[in-house]
């Protein structure tokens, strides 16, 4: 039995040695293999077909988002409490730094409410952008195992973020109203609901862009942190645009910042009891759905690459 195994192994080795010598022989004949009947591995489907596949997996998107929602702090002992405490600590820090030390509170009605809404809702937008960074790499096991439209990962992450942000949004509004004790909420606070949804539609588009960009150019992740911090400080979170009256260019640039427009509309609808005008709604819808469409098309354009890039 042992001799038979040895003889079989030697034949196998001799076969591969012979094959290797034939491949390395420059005089060996070239064999052309027909590509007829062969198909591309992981091809990118057409746009309509891609959208149809996404719709078929809508239940998976919802189920995954719900299963992972409210779990960002699950490793902590009081993990649910930190979802509320973290935003309050951020407000306390920035309130002391900008409101007391830098005195940006001068001339701002209900500065504490202004600050609370600015910080918490801006963290939602920057968080959506950051969630797209490295999303393909984080999901590599699923991408390499199953065949499915990769855009469903972005939609699932966006829905998860929306569910995660419900509690911070409620805390922000509650604290902002408590900061103006004696002034009861107006019906305009209901407009925060469509603004909250538009904010996540906008963030979904940003996530699409960040997901493909960081998958193709991983070095982008190194500057993503400073990008989100710069966006945070240049969106009127802690101060009004009146601070830039002496720099017209900076004032004009910040006034067209979508994050600033979102924060202004949410503040107006909640603590200032004002209905955002039609122009503001049109601008927000244009930014939200425009970014979503551009981001979706940009992400779909590299659909066949994600198996290799993950």
Verbal overview:
It is a single chain. This protein has one domain (52-309). Helix 5 packs parallel to helix 9 and helix 8 (151-178) packs across helix 9. By secondary structure, the protein is an all-alpha fold. It is built from 14 helices and no strands. It starts with a helix and ends with a helix. The protein has helices at residues 2-24, 47-56, 58-68, 79-101, 111-132, 135-138, 140-145, 151-178, 192-216, 220-233, 248-255, 258-269, 278-300, 306-309.
Number of helices: 14
Number of domains: 1
The percent range for helix content is 55-70%
Strand percent estimate:
under 5%
Task: Characterize the biggest β-sheet.
Answer: none
Q: Which overall shape is indicated by the principal axes computed on the Cα atoms? A: elongated
From the alpha-carbon coordinates, what is the Rg to the nearest angstrom?
27 Å
Sum this structure up briefly.
With 310 residues, this protein is mainly α. It has helices at 2-24, 47-56, 58-68, 79-101, 111-132, 135-138, 140-145, 151-178, 192-216, 220-233, 248-255, 258-269, 278-300, 306-309. Helix 5 (111-132) packs antiparallel against helix 8 (151-178), helix 9 (192-216) packs antiparallel against helix 12 (258-269) and helix 9 packs parallel to helix 13 (278-300).
Features of this protein?
single chain, 310 residues, mainly alpha
List the helices and strands and how they pair.
Elements: H1 2-24, H2 47-56, H3 58-68, H4 79-101, H5 111-132, H6 135-138, H7 140-145, H8 151-178, H9 192-216, H10 220-233, H11 248-255, H12 258-269, H13 278-300, H14 306-309
Helix pairs in contact: 3-8, 4-5, 5-8, 5-9, 5-10, 5-12, 8-9, 9-12, 9-13, 12-13
């Amino acid at each position: 039995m042992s001799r038979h195994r040895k003889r079989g192994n030697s034949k196998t080795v001799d076969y591969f040695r012979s094959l290797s010598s034939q491949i390395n022989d420059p005089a060996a004949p070239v064999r052309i293999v027909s590509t007829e009947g062969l198909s591309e591995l992981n091809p990118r489907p057409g746009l309509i077909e891609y959208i149809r596949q996404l719709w078929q997996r809508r239940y998976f998107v919802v189920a995954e988002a719900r299963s992972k929602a409210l779990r960002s702090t699950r490793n902590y002992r009081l993990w649910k409490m930190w979802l509320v405490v973290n935003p309050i600590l951020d407000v306390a820090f920035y309130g002391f730094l900008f409101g007391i030390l830098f005195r940006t509170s001068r001339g701002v009605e209900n500065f504490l409410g202004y600050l609370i809404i600015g910080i918490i809702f801006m963290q939602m937008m920057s968080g959506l952008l950051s969630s797209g960074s490295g999303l393909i790499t984080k999901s590599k096991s699923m991408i390499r195992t199953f065949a499915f439209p990769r855009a469903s990962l972005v939609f699932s992450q966006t829905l998860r973020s929306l569910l995660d942000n419900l509690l911070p949004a409620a805390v922000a509004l509650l604290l902002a109203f408590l900061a103006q004790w004696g002034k009861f909420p107006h019906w305009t606070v209901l407009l925060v609901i469509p603004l909250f949804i538009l904010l996540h539609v906008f963030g979904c588009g940003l996530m699409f862009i960040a997901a493909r960009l960081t998958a193709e150019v991983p070095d982008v992740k190194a500057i993503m942190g400073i990008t989100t911090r710069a966006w945070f400080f240049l969106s009127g979170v802690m101060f009004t645009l009146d601070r830039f009256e002496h720099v017209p260019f900076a004032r004009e640039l910040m006034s067209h910042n979508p994050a600033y427009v979102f924060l202004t509309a949410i503040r107006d609808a909640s603590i200032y009891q004002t209905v955002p005008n039609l122009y503001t709604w049109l601008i927000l819808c244009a930014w939200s759905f425009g970014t979503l469409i551009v981001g979706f098309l940009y992400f779909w354009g590299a659909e066949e690459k994600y198996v290799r890039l993950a």
